[in-house]
Design a protein that fits this description.
This protein has 158 residues and is an alpha/beta fold. 27% of the residues lie in helices and 28% in strands. The protein contains five helices and seven strands, in the order E-H-E-H-E-E-H-H-E-E-E-H. It has a seven-stranded mixed β-sheet, sandwiched between helices. A hairpin with a 2-residue loop joins strand 3 and strand 4. Helix 1 packs across helix 2. The chain is globular.
Length: 158
């Protein structure tokens, strides 16, 4: 599969939330979004905004740093938000049930490098980075190989 990518600059946390809400509208069960980047780059903020935009009645969306996985019922089905930061071995990923969820749920995964070889080939990867010119801004690179993302991302990214 050929990798494709697009980049954007998010000038504020509001811009990050808006992009999360836009991407939320194109997600269906079986979609995996990998949120990659350093601590403080905006991964959890993005995930919270995306999840809340899909809820019929928005509620608090805690970070799954300590629980490892939070699940939500949204109109399209189940949504899993995983934070793999604290995992010490890739075997723990399977114990969480995350691999099975990749097939039936919308999955948002922070710290995807912990997946190692279990990383789904059809995932959309969002790489967050801090912006050197502005404390509030972030850089984001979207990377994908699966053809399904081509049409869905059209009109969202330059």
């Amino acid at each position: 599969m050929t990798k494709r990518s697009a980049t954007c600059r998010l000038l504020s946390s509001e811009a990050t939330s808006e992009l999360a809400q836009t991407i939320a509208r194109i997600l269906v069960p079986g979609d995996v979004v990998l949120l990659d980047g350093p601590i403080g780059a905006g991964k959890t903020h993005f995930a919270r905004s995306l999840i809340q935009s899909l809820m019929e009645v928005p509620e608090d969306v805690p970070s799954p740093t300590f629980t490892l996985v939070q699940t939500y019922e949204v109109p399209t089905g189940e949504l899993w938000h995983a934070d793999l930061y604290r995992l010490s071995h890739v075997d723990e990923v399977e114990e969480l049930g995350l691999i099975a969820a990749f097939d039936d749920a919308i999955c948002l995964v922070e710290w995807p490098e912990k997946l190692e070889d279990l990383r789904p080939e059809n995932a959309l990867t969002l790489r967050f980075s801090l912006d050197e010119d502005s404390e509030d801004a972030r850089q984001m690179e979207l990377v994908w190989s699966a053809d399904k993302w081509d049409s869905r991302l059209k009109g969202i990214m330059p």
